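Re: [ENG-882] Designed sequences occasionally contain unexpected residues at chain ends

Forwarding the minimal case from QA. Structure tokens:
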């Protein structure tokens, strides 16, 4: 029974300064070190949302928001327990990129880029299998276009990757890796050179993966990849050498992106800081992508559950501070995520507010009963939150992407972007 000083709230209603004393799951299942957490940032809210839907707030232990927003409060609100940023962040993360285009504008600018890249990857893979010369420089040029698109607006390519079908899933997987890697790098503040470097490296991993059998891909495990799957790494490096691609930095990143800081990776069981920084990000990106979009779609988990997995992998497979910053960068419900709303409907996130990610723009596609909705509508949850509390529309939880057929997403895309209307007004 709750006391007068305690109240149950949905995670979407959490605010800075609230003290969460209880969750709707046992504390032991979370990564939080203590039984209680003071909300200091949007990142705190997102991490709580990854584990539960409702929490108990203790008003006697809560603080005024002003106290949290003070300079001292901000100084304490760090990704690590230290008062300074981790060394890798001070060294590499120095840029800030404002959004310079709307989602609608960027979708129209970049809609053909995915088709171009898919064909380029297809030709490279086919030519290498037949021992023919391939033009890999075109793929390098495309990676630069990905970087510029993501810098202008990160939501556009994330959305296009979600709704696009592919002649062969491995090609789209490779493109999604490159897009996610660039989005994460942008949010972290990497410079353009590093973004291009990482995007190109992730695109090229598809060269070796295309030679892996469908059976080996379907049986992929993030903790115990098969010997056949692991051979994609050496195959990629070998083919790049045959193609006379001489960029030591990029090939070094590819050679190390499957390594893990605890030595559990491959091919050489490299540990800790011996793994190049960009290779660590690439490994983190691939792990996340293969959790939410695995080679076998029935194994997909929600982005929120993928975040739970990454939290458990801190200081084991991945550097703890890097995982925390990765989660801040990607959010619990990134663009393209399928979510269950408080109405019971299932919807797809079209865009999000980088400061308040639980207040995204969503299109409901399935009713609470599971029926396909014939009349689409675009919900701006930041607006919906301004209504009476009992009418608030909010995200209840994330669900695996396989729940919604791709055909529905393609129809949603057509409704939203292929006609002149004010529908994208809520798309930031």
């Amino acid at each position: 029974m709750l006391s007068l000083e305690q109240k149950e709230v949905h995670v979407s209603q959490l605010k800075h300064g609230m003290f969460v004393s209880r969750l709707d799951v046992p504390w032991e299942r979370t990564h939080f070190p203590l039984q209680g957490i003071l909300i200091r940032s949007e990142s705190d809210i997102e991490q709580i949302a990854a584990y539960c839907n409702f929490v108990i707030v203790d008003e006697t232990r809560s603080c005024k928001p002003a106290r949290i927003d003070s300079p001292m409060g901000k100084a304490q609100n760090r990704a690590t327990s230290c008062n300074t940023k981790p060394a890798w962040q001070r060294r590499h993360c120095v840029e800030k990129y404002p959004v310079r285009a709307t989602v609608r504008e960027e979708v129209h600018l970049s809609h053909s880029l995915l088709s171009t890249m898919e064909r380029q990857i297809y030709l490279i893979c086919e030519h290498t299998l037949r021992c023919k010369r391939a033009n890999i420089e075109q793929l390098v040029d495309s990676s630069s276009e990905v970087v510029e698109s993501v810098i202008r607006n990160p939501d556009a390519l994330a959305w296009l990757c979600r709704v696009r079908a592919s002649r062969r899933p491995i090609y789209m997987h490779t493109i999604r890796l490159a897009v996610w890697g660039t989005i994460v790098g942008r949010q972290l503040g990497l410079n353009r050179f590093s973004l291009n470097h990482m995007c190109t490296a992730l695109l090229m991993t598809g060269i070796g993966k295309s030679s892996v059998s469908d059976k080996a891909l379907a049986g992929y495990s993030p903790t115990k990849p098969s010997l056949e799957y692991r051979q994609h790494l050496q195959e990629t490096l070998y083919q790049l050498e045959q193609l006379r691609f001489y960029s030591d930095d990029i090939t070094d990143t590819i050679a190390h992106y499957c390594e893990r800081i605890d030595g559990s990776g491959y091919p050489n069981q490299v540990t800790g800081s011996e793994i190049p920084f960009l290779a660590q990000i690439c490994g983190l990106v691939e792990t996340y992508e293969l959790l939410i979009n695995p080679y076998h779609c029935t194994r997909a988990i929600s982005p929120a559950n993928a975040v739970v997995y990454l939290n458990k992998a801190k200081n084991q497979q991945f550097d703890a501070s890097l995982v925390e910053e990765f989660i801040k960068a990607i959010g619990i419900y990134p663009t393209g995520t399928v979510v269950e709303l408080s109405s019971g409907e299932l919807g797809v996130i079209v865009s999000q507010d980088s400061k308040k990610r639980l207040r995204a723009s969503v299109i409901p596609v399935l009713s609470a009963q599971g029926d396909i909705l014939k009349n689409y509508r675009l919900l701006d949850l930041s607006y919906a939150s301004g209504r009476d509390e009992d009418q608030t529309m909010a995200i209840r939880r994330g669900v695996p992407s396989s729940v919604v057929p791709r055909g529905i997403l393609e129809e949603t895309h057509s409704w939203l972007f292929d006609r002149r209307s004010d529908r994208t007004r809520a798309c930031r």
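QA comment: On inspection the terminal residues look reasonable. Residues 6-77 form one domain. Proposing we downgrade this to a documentation issue.
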